[in-house]
Design goal:
Elements lengths: L2 H26 L7 H25 L9 H24 L5 H12 L5 H9 L1
Length: 125
């Protein structure tokens, strides 16, 4: 394996672990005092990370051509990685799979905070 490819693999692994550590830190923090916006942002981060992992797994199932040079392959891998991250983040921001909204509502119930439905009912009364 070439040094460039090894460096690229290390950078990818380090970047992926940084993202997962940041998300893990957010989820382990005390969210009982978080605002609705902060709570929803954490839920969207989780959905984006989850979706990114699904996309990466799907990408591994696609056979790749071995005809390109290592420099070209490294650039392709980098852009694929960035594209997957952007797809996942964009999907989460637009409601995506709905995981963020379900997680948000569940966390609100767990922290005994009023959910959107409960707030709408109390306002109607």
């Amino acid at each position: 394996m070439a040094v460039d490819a090894l460096a690229g693999a290390y950078a990818e692994a380090a970047n992926g672990s940084q993202v997962s550590r940041k998300l893990e830190g957010s989820l382990k923090s005390d969210l009982s005092k978080a605002t609705d916006e902060e709570l929803m942002n954490v839920c969207k981060e989780f959905e984006a990370y989850f979706t990114e992992q699904v996309f990466k797994s799907m990408q591994k199932m696609v056979p790749e051509s071995k005809d390109s040079s290592s420099a070209n392959q490294q650039m392709k891998d980098y852009y694929k990685e960035e594209l997957i991250k952007q797809y996942a983040a964009s999907s989460s921001e637009r409601g995506g799979l709905g995981i963020a909204q379900m997680l948000y509502e569940q966390m609100k119930r767990n922290y005994d905070m009023p959910t959107v439905e409960e707030t709408n009912v109390s306002e109607a009364e």
